[in-house]
Design brief:
Helices cover 30% and strands 22% of the residues. It is of the alpha+beta class and 477 residues long. The chain folds into 3 domains: 1-86 and 147-219 and 315-374, FAD/NAD(P)-binding domain (3-Layer(bba) Sandwich), CATH 3.50.50; 88-142 and 221-311, 2-Layer Sandwich (D-Amino Acid Oxidase, Chain A, domain 2), CATH 3.30.9; 378-461, Arc Repressor Mutant, subunit A, CATH 1.10.10. The strands form 5 sheets. Strands 1, 2, 9, 10, 11, 12, 19 and 20 form an 8-stranded mixed sheet that branches. Strands 13, 15, 16, 17 and 18 form a 5-stranded antiparallel sheet that branches. Strands 6-7-5-14 form a 4-stranded mixed sheet. Strand 15 (254-257) and strand 16 (263-266) form a beta hairpin. The longest helix has 20 residues, at 60-79. The two termini are 29 Å apart. Bound molecules: flavin-adenine dinucleotide (FAD). Flavin-adenine dinucleotide binds at residues 8-14, 31-34, 39-42, 45-48, 50, 172-173, 201-205, 209, 225, 267, 310-312, 337-343.
């Protein structure tokens, strides 16, 4: 099967590139080792659309952060995902911090970041009454925003798919061979695909994929970020994203409402040896609580729902690498796409499209459809709308996830729509079922039964997230 472009990796970066390339007359495929999009770093991060004041002038990170941030208003309207430009506050606890904030403000203004202002303690407490009394002031970044990172990734992927991009899941690339024209990618199951161009968007594995063929060799150093997620009652504590003064490798521990209304605190920043080190640790969770308690008063720690972690694909070099080198000018590698990768993704996609246009003729499609309709969220509807929907489709009258109020109709939609869910976690990321107070205790089995029925597979074949996580019984692998 010959493609013009194969993108390896269905995270936010791969899906943003796929959607951008779907505007042109090209045969494009995305190959992904997992069963769904947004299963890597793009599902476990802070979800902040950063203003960009902290990036270094002249870097790709700075340029693409600022461009990407500005693209989110249009993107969220076209693709129907939640985007709230809620603004961020960077807190100062002493005079030295205040100097740092002044520096951040002028650095940001030098980069072209709009809406930066220094606020006094009194001004901060007027807009955020739950901020700690120990602050002396804050930097207000009005252009900062919040999204659900997996919702954005799913939206980009669905729209790319609608516009002709093929998505191939359970397809782990294990080898790349250069041919006379283009490349042959071999998958773990023995199959292969050929393509004129290849784009490596494999997040934490992008060094390994790059080193299979790229002229420059890289080694990523995973830096783990752990989080604590609190429920929606805690989510009302603050309205802005609250940072402390950043360090060299991290933007520091933040406290933020999420796009779905929860409260998120974290992350830590700890170098780890393994690319699979995603466990939560007592020390890190205590550290997050201690730091967050410094930012806000009366943090409701009794409202913790869950903990999770993500891995930053960190490069000592300090900037994003987006390159095609030497003899491999048709192999574009994206390496070290750590924060602000979520913010920058739409701008990264345009940057990569420009690189592709210097190698392949790009002809705009006359029938490109920029719009994608998000899922119906039953609990957001008026009573009249709910009744009308149930009359049309009684599945919307059967509540499956009683914590998040998700109906059977929504779960069926998540399975049957474009690039539909095939696992419980894929249903979760599309509907929020299992994300409430009971964390799936009440609805894991009912959801699994619906997946089994809709996909026509035995219940023992239904998995939570990967082939090794069956919901019912045990499976030999
Ligand atoms: C703790 C933390 C907090 C962050 N907070 C923010 C933030 O608030 N704002 C922000 O802008 N950015 C943030 N980021 C950065 C952002 O999350 C990442 O830059 C972004 O998600 C990277 O997306 P990606 O598509 O490159 O990687 P991924 O989402 O990991 O996607 C890569 C995909 O490649 C697949 N893959 C890997 N190997 C293979 C293979 N051999 N064959 C086929 N497929 C393969 C993986 O399964 C995965 O699906 C944060 C990151 C972390 C870790």
């Amino acid at each position: 099967m010959n493609k013009d472009v194969v993108i390896i990796g269905a995270g936010i970066v791969g899906c943003a590139i796929a959607r951008e390339l779907s505007k042109y007359d090209l045969k494009v495929a995305v190959v992904e080792k997992d069963t769904d999009v947004a299963n890597g770093i793009s599902k476990a991060n802070s979800g902040i659309i950063h203003a960009g004041y902290n990036e270094k002038k002249g870097t790709l990170k700075a340029e693409l952060n600022i461009k990407g941030n500005k693209m989110y208003d249009t993107l969220s309207k076209e693709l129907d995902f939640k985007f709230n430009r809620n603004g961020a506050l960077v807190l100062a606890f002493n005079d030295e911090d205040m100097c740092t904030l002044e520096n951040l403000k002028s650095k940001g203004q030098g980069l072209g970041v709009e809406g930066l202002e220094i606020l006094s303690k009194e001004e901060v407490s007027k807009i955020e009454p739950n901020i700690s009394d120990t602050i002396v002031g804050a930097l207000h970044a009005k252009t900062s925003g919040i999204v659900s990172p997996y919702e954005v990734t799913i939206a980009l992927a669905e729209n790319a798919c609608t516009n002709g991009v093929e998505f191939i899941f359970d397809a782990e690339v294990v080898n790349i061979d250069k041919m006379d024209s283009g490349y042959e990618l071999s998958f773990k199951d023995g199959s292969s695909i050929t393509s004129t161009m290849v784009i490596n968007a494999t997040g934490i594995n992008s060094d390994e994929i790059n080193n299979m063929i790229g002229e420059n060799k890289y080694t990523l150093k995973p830096v783990k970020g752990e989080y604590i997620l609190l429920d929606k009652i805690a989510g009302k504590l603050i309205s802005k994203t609250i940072f402390q003064v950043p360090s060299k490798i991290s933007k520091g521990v933040l406290v933020t409402p999420t796009a779905d209304g929860n409260l998120l605190i974290g992350p830590t920043a700890k170098g780890v040896d393994s690319k699979g080190a995603l466990e939560s640790t007592k020390d890190s969770l205590n550290y997050i609580l201690e730091k967050s308690n410094k930012s806000v008063k009366t943090l409701p720690v009794g409202r913790v729902l869950t903990t999770f972690a993500g891995l930053r694909p960190h490069l000592e070099y300090g900037d994003f690498i987006i390159e095609a080198t030497g003899d491999n000018e048709n192999f574009i590698s994206l390496i070290g796409i750590e924060s602000p990768g979520l913010t920058a993704a739409p701008a990264i996609a345009v940057h990569v499209k420009d690189m592709v246009s210097r190698r392949l003729p790009l002809k705009e499609k006359s029938d490109f459809n920029p719009y994608r309709k998000g899922m119906i969220k039953f609990s957001d509807l008026s009573l009249e709308e709910k009744n009308a929907l149930i009359a049309k489709n009684p599945a919307y009258g059967r509540m499956v996830c009683k914590c998040e109020l998700i109906t059977e109709g929504e779960i069926i939609d998540s399975i049957n729509r474009t690039l539909g869910a095939r696992t419980v976690d894929a249903v979760k990321r599309r509907t929020r079922a299992t994300m409430g107070g009971c964390q799936g205790v009440g609805c894991l089995l009912p959801i699994s039964k619906i997946i089994s029925r809709e996909l026509g597979i035995d219940i023992t074949e239904v998995v939570k997230n990967s082939k090794v996580s069956p919901v019912v019984g045990f499976k030999e692998v």
